[in-house]
Amino acid sequence: MAPPSGPLTLTLAGGSAIVSRGVGSGPLAGRATGSVSVSFAEAMAVPPEFSLVGPSVVCSAADSRATYRALTLEGLGRALTYTWNVTLEADTTLTQRTTLEVWQGINEVMERDATYGTGAVSVYTINTSPLIADDFNYQVFAKAQTWAGGSRSLFRAFRVVSSGLSVAVVGPDRIAAGGLYTYRATAVLCGGEQRGFKYAWRLPGMPASALEGLDSATLRLDTAQLVWQSEFVLTCVVTSMDTGDVGTGSLRLRPVGGGVRARLPAERRSVSAGQPVFLDGSRSADLDRRPGSLAFTWSCQLADGGGGCFVGKPGALRRLEQHLGQEAVSQPTLRVPADLLGADTWYRFTLRVEKNSDVDEASTEVFVGRQRRPRLWINRNQDFFSPYEPIYIPAQVSTDWRVTVRWETEYELPAAALDSASFQPTDVAGGTRRRPFDLVLPPLEQPGDRCMSLSLCVSVSLYLCL
User: Fold this and answer.
1) Of 61, 262, 289, 380, which one is least surrounded by beta carbons within 10 A?
2) Which of 84, 72, 68, 165 is nearest to 119 (CA)?
């Protein structure tokens, strides 16, 4: 059951079936009744923590496949729901002809994809042979959603090649001190025989005695000797002994054990002007569970220029932190009153968490806006198309709010055309600028003087938990 949107009243009853616990002497009640009102806070829908791993280079040879894995990083009690997609990397510029071929390949990949889950892992396998091999990047998109409505999206960029080696490093990307971890390098020679590979692993900052299998496909890592830092890059260089091709795969490793962790629900969010800004850092924690309390400090900067956040009248401006007061910016949660921040501006709020000598920070960007409508661009270079040739109309979307975008038409199209990605509702995140959303249609093969009306539609995405 998902959490209700309002308060929930729980009633305790049941007579002698109640189990009572207490400390001290004297009789305990055998029967008890009562109620408590529970308000489900915004923190229940916090985005889940997960990582996305897979190859950064894939092959376009016939029947080539690439596998990506979404790994849950926290024990959430219930399995996450994953949504997968393949798209182009943001801000990719292509010619009209190339764009048509690229999106046709993406649509074909989506028709053949396969997804399966094993508890905390969701595996996504795609047939990469329809993709165009060129000097630009595609993206695998994974969206994880909890039962309470919290969601997070991650992208993994990859390039398609027609020759050479594709290497993927698979294994846990969160590591703890004193642990044993296993990593495997998978190499695929595009268009060649899959044999005769030479492996060489690298992990800067790690003594060779802590690495087992430096010259094999499988590496075992003992972190007991690791000199801890904020991030490590594990790399495997693979060489084909037959062709001399060289490929590289890497995986970023982040320590999770020890110290404090600052946590905020989302990296970006938007609020309407006239509404207060509420930020919740109460999920921050000391991973070592040492005695004592965490110390919190909130700060604010302009997201675009890095300057401080100033409020007040001209001639009497003060930093937001000073205006709110020391007590307000030293709590796990921060509330900025309505109408205090200027509209149509991105602000970056940073939470600093300290305990003993350990420090960690987390930031979230907040857009305060006047509910400006999303902007759409349709680059209509021609109005007449041959019924025997594909139709391509480039379009772009910019929005400060999470919206759903899709193409619509009252013209009777073949089912295959309506199943294309252009006519499927697609979520676009707040803060998106000039995101391509092109219309791609196969040849309609319906000759005659006919016209169709096409609309690029935007609606606000609203998520309700009941």
Assistant:
1) 289
2) 72
